[in-house]
UniProtKB/TrEMBL annotation, chain B:
NDH-1 is composed of 14 different subunits. Subunits NuoA, H, J, K, L, M, N constitute the membrane sector of the complex. Its EC number is 7.1.1.-. The chain crosses the membrane at residues 61-85. It is a multi-pass membrane protein. It catalyses: a quinone + NADH + 5 H(+)(in) = a quinol + NAD(+) + 4 H(+)(out). This is NADH-quinone oxidoreductase subunit K. It is an enzyme of class 7 (translocase). The keyword Plastid does not apply. It comes from Streptomyces polyasparticus. Residues 114-126 have a biased composition (Low complexity).
Length: 222, 126
């Protein structure tokens, strides 16, 4: 009986201790998590649009630190490179190009703000309850071999995930081409500008000159 | 580390992003909230990958794929938002009520005149 109850008592002894185990990684994870969550909340609630993008940098950087704490190094640096480096810069460019107001804009939040808050709080309560209830006794073993070093990630990515990787690169290329086509100035050349200029209220002379202008480079290229 | 920490953090981040998507009015802020939701999913994937010690590291591979798809999404999304702004003079998702392009005669003309005038006509039409 003692032998049978030994693992259980050991589990019972480690479980409450481990749940609040003051190891450095857990404390760091919780602290960075609080900072990340706070930055995310400020991102979605601030009334200054540019500040929202800058707080998004804090939130995404905090997530990169969380990846590092979970020993996924490569993903952490990819996060820093792609999200903090390029996505936020793209968002800032988008804010500037749409002439977002600098300073406080009173209409940053729409009218259904309280409905949104209710939905978010309800889903947060449900998700947190389910997650905590489901994984109450599960532990991440962070000791041992590193899970996400560049060597490991490169090995599995090009050994087991080559086909999705290549398909994804084609998708990225298609998305880039699509973004260029969409954000090109309308009416310089191409059918897109012509149809829209025809549909718009622009005088026909401008359309004619633009089509002429768009035809000539083709001839020059030939 | 307890598995509940990253799981709870990602759930809360997801809900913060959900609030942002529902409550924000500027389309670019909506895109930012979508990024937050995608990042919550990424954190979940990484945490469960480390927890399960998957031999194929499916979680980390999918995280990389999600990051790439998010980059593509933000590029396309910003291009669409810029085009809408150029056409309508506003990137306010509350004002974009008609799904048809060039729906009414009062809609904003295209190209380089995103002044206040098309915005007001759109507002008056809506």
């Amino acid at each position: 009986m003692i032998l049978a109850s030994a693992p259980q008592s050991l589990l019972a002894a480690t479980a409450p201790q481990g749940f609040l185990s003051p190891t450095g990684v857990e404390i760091a994870f919780v602290l960075v998590g609080i900072a990340t969550l706070g930055a995310a909340v400020i991102t979605v609630t601030t009334r200054q649009l540019v500040h929202a993008a800058l707080w998004l940098v804090v939130a995404l950087g905090g997530l990169a630190v969380e990846y590092l704490l979970l020993t996924a190094e490569f993903i952490a640096w990819v996060q820093v490179l792609i999200y903090v480096g390029s996505v936020v810069v793209l968002l800032l460019f988008g804010l500037m190009l749409t002439r977002a107001p600098i300073g406080r804009s009173p209409d940053a939040d729409s009218g259904n703000r309280w409905v949104a808050l209710a939905v978010a709080v309800a889903s947060a309560a449900a998700l947190v309850w389910v997650v905590v209830d489901a994984f109450r006794t599960q532990w991440i073993d962070l000791d041992g071999a590193v899970q996400g070093s560049t060597e490991v990630t490169g090995s599995i990515l090009f050994r087991h995930w080559v086909l999705p990787f290549e398909a994804l690169s084609v998708l990225l290329l298609a998305a880039l081409v699509g973004a260029i086509v969409l954000s090109r100035k309308n009416g310089e050349n191409g059918e897109n500008g012509e149809t829209e200029a025809g549909a718009g209220t622009e005088p026909p002379t401008a359309t004619a000159t633009e089509t002429a202008r768009s035809v000539t480079p083709d001839k020059e290229q030939r | 580390m307890h598995l509940a920490y990253p799981a709870v953090l990602s759930a809360l981040l997801f809900c913060v992003g959900l609030y942002g998507v529902l409550a924000r009015r500027n389309a670019i802020l909506v895109l930012m909230s979508v990024e937050l939701m995608l990042n919550a999913v990424n954190l979940n994937l990484v945490a469960f990958d480390v927890w399960l010690r998957d031999a194929l590291h499916a979680g980390q591979a999918l995280t990389l794929f999600t990051i790439a798809i998010a980059a593509a999404e933000i590029g396309i999304g910003l291009a669409i938002v810029l085009m809408v702004y150029r056409n309508r003079g506003s990137s306010d998702v509350d004002r974009l009520r008609d799904t048809a392009e060039g729906h009414g005669p009062g809609e904003g003309p295209d190209t380089d005149a995103p002044e206040a005038a098309p915005a007001h006509t759109t507002e008056a039409a809506a």
